[in-house]
C-alpha cells in the first residue's frame, strides 16, 4: 500500500519505533536514524543474540543508518535524507530537534511538502511539555490506570505498555492522514502527538457516565458487575471470559448448559449473594480450560479463553493466518496487519544500511 513512500525515523525505545514499523509493514521504506551507539533499546532488558528484545520487536523491515546529530556533518546528512523523504517522525523532548536544526521550521526550507510528526509525552507546549514521562505516567494522568483495580479496589500494575502502543498507533494514523492531505492539496503539514492526550481520548464514555450518574467505572453492563459479562475461573485455575451481553448469546449459553432457569438472570449482579452468579462460577470451576475452549467453539455465546503469551501461536484463528511468525533470524513476531503478507524481515543491525543510503543521497 505504501510502496514508494519514504519515512525518516528519529525515534527510540517503543512508541515511535512501533509507529514506523506499522508503516513499514504496509510497504513504506523506513530509514531509522540511530546515534553512533544505537537506539538505547538495543541494550535494554532481555536480549537475543546480544540485541535487546524491545528493539527487535519494534524495528522489523526498516533500514538503519548511524549519524552523530551533534556534529554538523551528521545534521547535514540528515537533511539530505529528509529532502528525499515523504514524512519524518521524531520523539525527542520538545526543543531538541530545534537545537539540532532539524525542527519543522528548518526542514520545510529544504523540503516544503514534508509531513512532519512529533511524538511527545504531553505535547510541545503547556505546563507538562518539558517533563519526561513513560507509559505508566501517561496511563495514570489519562484516567485509564484508575480503571485497573482488583476486587479490593487496589490498583493493578499493568505488565503491557498500553499508552506507548496507543501513542504509536496515533502517530502512524496522523502520518497517514498527512500523506493523504499532501496527495489532495500538494502541501505538507506538521503534527504533534501527545501520548497522554491520546490515551485520555478513550475516556469519553467514562466522563459522560460520571457526569450523569456519578459512577466512574464506565459502562455498567460490561465492567464486570453482571453475571453475563465477566471473567470466570476454571477447574485447572485458568480463566475464561464470558461476553454474553446480548440476549441471544446469554440464552445460547444457558440453553447449551441445560439451565433455562438462568435466563431471567441475564443482568443480575456478579456478587456472592446472587445464587445464579455462584452457580455459574461453580459450573465454570467444574471443567478445565480446554473443555471450555471446545464449548466456546460449538456454542455461539461469546466465550473465549484468557491466553498466556506462549499460547498465542497455537490459537486457531491466529495460527490460520500466521499472525505469529518467525523472522529470518528466528525471532517470534506478531503481524501488524493480519490481512497483509509478511516477508519475514527482521530488525536491522546497527548502521547496516548507512553506506548504501548515504551514497544514494549524495548522488
From TrEMBL:
Amino acid composition bias (Basic and acidic residues), ranges on this chain: 352-363
Assigned keywords, A-Z: Transferase
Q: Which InterPro entries does its entry note?
A: CoA-transferase_III (IPR050509), CoA-Trfase_fam_III (IPR003673), CoA-Trfase_III_dom3_sf (IPR044855), CoA-Trfase_III_dom_1_sf (IPR023606)
Domain of life, per lineage: Bacteria
GO MF terms, alphabetically ordered: transferase activity
**Disordered: annotated span:** 336-363
**What Pfam families does the record tag this protein with?**
CoA_transf_3
Protein's name according to its UniProt entry:
CoA transferase
Taxonomy of origin reads:
Bacteria, Bacillati, Bacillota, Bacilli, Bacillales
Amino acid at each position: 500500500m505504501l510502496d514508494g513512500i519514504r519515512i525518516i525515523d528519529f525515534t527510540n525505545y517503543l512508541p515511535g519505533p512501533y509507529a514506523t514499523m506499522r508503516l513499514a509493514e504496509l510497504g513504506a521504506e523506513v530509514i531509522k536514524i540511530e546515534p553512533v551507539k544505537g537506539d538505547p533499546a538495543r541494550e535494554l532488558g532481555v536480549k537475543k543474540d546480544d540485541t535487546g528484545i524491545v528493539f527487535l520487536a519494534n524495528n522489523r523491515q526498516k533500514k538503519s543508518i548511524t549519524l552523530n546529530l551533534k556534529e554538523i556533518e551528521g545534521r547535514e546528512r540528515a537533511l539530505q535524507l529528509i529532502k528525499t523523504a515523504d514524512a519524518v517522525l521524531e520523539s525527542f523532548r520538545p526543543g531538541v530537534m530545534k537545537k539540532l536544526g532539524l525542527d519543522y521550521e528548518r526542514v520545510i526550507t529544504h523540503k516544503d511538502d514534508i509531513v512532519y510528526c512529533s511524538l511527545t509525552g504531553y505535547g510541545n507546549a503547556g505546563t507538562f511539555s518539558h517533563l519526561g514521562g513513560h507509559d505508566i505516567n501517561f496511563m495514570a494522568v489519562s484516567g485509564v490506570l484508575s480503571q485497573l483495580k482488583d476486587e479490593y479496589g487496589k490498583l493493578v500494575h499493568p505488565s503491557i505498555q498500553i499508552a506507548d502502543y496507543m501513542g504509536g498507533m496515533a502517530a502512524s494514523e496522523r502520518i497517514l492522514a498527512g500523506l493523504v492531505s499532501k496527495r489532495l492539496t500538494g502541501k505538507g503539514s506538521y503534527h504533534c502527538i501527545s501520548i497522554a492526550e491520546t490515551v485520555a481520548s478513550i475516556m469519553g464514555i467514562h466522563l459522560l457516565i460520571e457526569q450523569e450518574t456519578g459512577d466512574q467505572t464506565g459502562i455498567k453492563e460490561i465492567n464486570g458487575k453482571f453475571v453475563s459479562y465477566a471473567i470466570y475461573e476454571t477447574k485447572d485455575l485458568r480463566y475464561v471470559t464470558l461476553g454474553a451481553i446480548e440476549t441471544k448469546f446469554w440464552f445460547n449459553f444457558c440453553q447449551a448448559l441445560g439451565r433455562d432457569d438462568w435466563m431471567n438472570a441475564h443482568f443480575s449482579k456478579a456478587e456472592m449473594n446472587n445464587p445464579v452468579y455462584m452457580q455459574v462460577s461453580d459450573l465454570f470451576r467444574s471443567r478445565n480450560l480446554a473443555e471450555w475452549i471446545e464449548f466456546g467453539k460449538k456454542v455461539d455465546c461469546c466465550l473465549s479463553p484468557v491466553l498466556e503469551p506462549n499460547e498465542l501461536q497455537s490459537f486457531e484463528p491466529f495460527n490460520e493466518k500466521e499472525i505469529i511468525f518467525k523472522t529470518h533470524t528466528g525471532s517470534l513476531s506478531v503481524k501488524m496487519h493480519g490481512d497483509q503478507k509478511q516477508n519475514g524481515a527482521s530488525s536491522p543491525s546497527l548502521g547496516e544500511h548507512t553506506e548504501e543510503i548515504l551514497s544514494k543521497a549524495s548522488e
